[in-house]
Every structure is written in structure tokens, then in C-alpha cells.
Amino acid sequence: MSPIRPGAAAAGLLAIAVALAACGGRPNAVSPGATGSPPASGGPAPSPTNWPGQVALAILALGSADNEIGKASADLQRSIAEQDLALMREAADGLTGLTVLFERVDQIDDFELTRPIAAKYREVLPALVDASTKLRDAIDAGDANGIEQANIELAQALAQYVALRPELSTLVAEALEHQRRLLR
Questions:
Q1: Ordered DSSP codes for 80-99
Q2: What is the DSSP string of 18-37?
Q3: Which of 10, 99, 154, 167 could, after both became Cys, cross-link 131 (CB 3.0–4.6 A)?
């Protein structure tokens, strides 16, 4: 197989890895009143919204997958820097498994509060799966041009994914609060 050519793919994946690291895996602070916390005005807190069925569990599963996507992105960046096709293939292969999240996206699409992020996931998940499948297949075929093109597509899909992380982070915090209320 040909060595990986540094260039647009490497720069793109490096930028995505830095963005994923900057976002962190921990939930952001929840907006006042979103889960029953007192509003800034000191008035009574609005009653918290009850989440239907499996929505909280689906959001938590997406949050857990977020950590794995971040690890795969870091592995991809490292694989380009080290010209390690085996690591690159492993990371790409892991991202092809994101198809298991499609069912979770369906579960959050029925709830008004989580419907906007479901729409974003419906765009980004297929792009991540498609680009990572192309990358894996190009590596298997020894196609250097295919590897470079798939890395560019994957970097673009990861950039799109990074944009939804803050919203996911907030929803993960709200889902955890929802579960705490149920256990009280």
C-alpha cells in the first residue's frame, strides 16, 4: 500500500480532533428552568418537562457514543500523523458501526424537545458511516487516492458532527436530571 499523503485530509482531521477535545465529553450547564432549576429572576421554577418513554435513555446512548466518536477522531488524526493504515482502518471500521444509533435517533424524533437534534443526527450519521465505509474500503483496496478522498469526506462529516455536540451535551444533562427526578 502507498503511504498516506499528508495534506487536506490531515489538516482537516487535526482541526476536528482539536474541536472535539475542546468541546470535551462532559455535559454543559443546563439552561435555567430547563430541568426545574430556579430561574435567574428568583421566581418560582417552572415545572420540569416529563420525557416520554425511552427518550432519556436514547439521549444517554447518543452521549455515550459521542465519547467513542471523539476517540475514533483522535485515532484517525494519529493514524495520519504516524502513517498507520492499520489504526486508520480500525477507527474507520468503528465509525461504520454508528448505524446502531439510527434506532436511538428514531426514539428522540418523537419528542418536541429532542426533535431538532434528531434532524441533525439524520444528516450527520449517514455521512459519517458513508465516509468511514469508503475509507475502510479504500484502505482494503490499497487505493491511495480513495484514502485521501474518504479522509476529506470524513473530516467534513466530523466537522458537521462537532457542531451538534453542545446541544447534545445540554440534552445529556437534562436526561440525567430527568432520570434523577424519576428515582426520587
A1: HHTT-HHHHHHHHHHHHGGG
A2: HHHHHH-SSPPPPPTTSSSP
A3: 154
